[in-house]
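Page 42, continued from yesterday. The earlier attempt failed because a stray header line got pasted into the input along with the sequence. Redoing it now with the clean sequence only.
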Amino acid sequence: MKLQGKKVLQLVSDDFEDLELWYPVHRLREEGAHVILAGEKADHAYIGKYGVPAKSDVAFDDVDITSFDAILVPGGWSPDLLRRFDSVKGFVRYMDEQKRPIGQICHAGWVLISANILDGVNVTSTPGIKDDMENAGAIWHDEPVVVDGHIVSSRRPPDLPDYMRAFIDVFAKQ
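This time it went through. Structure tokens are written below.
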């Protein structure tokens, strides 16, 4: 198991893209990582776009980001909610400053935009937010996965296998 003993913060709020949250969680757990789901409230069931629930382990206010080795931002419509929390933007900025792995897929780029960390960074996302990404200074590519240092980005659910292989590889090298 490549990630034994590593700790990952998975952000969650309502209207996450079900596969884009759960597929990474399961893959990382298969590799031995300890994945913690953080939402606005602890022990709260957030509902995905297709009705699959995800129960938070901890509230944003109770997260000690310094104890985490990586962070994942799911897609769907939840990134528009997540980026409204100063704590969430702070988590992403901290991970960026520390060069710890940041995974983002689909609309998750909105959170990285709001955290102001994309200037000059090579990324991908759902094509629907390409303009937003470029307006934030990112260099956008229409590819299944783009790795720029510690930031791993992907477009949509069909790209999940490529996304997680790349994220796990980046994470395992840390």
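Notes: The first strand starts at residue 7 and ends at 11.
Reminder to self: strip header lines before submitting.
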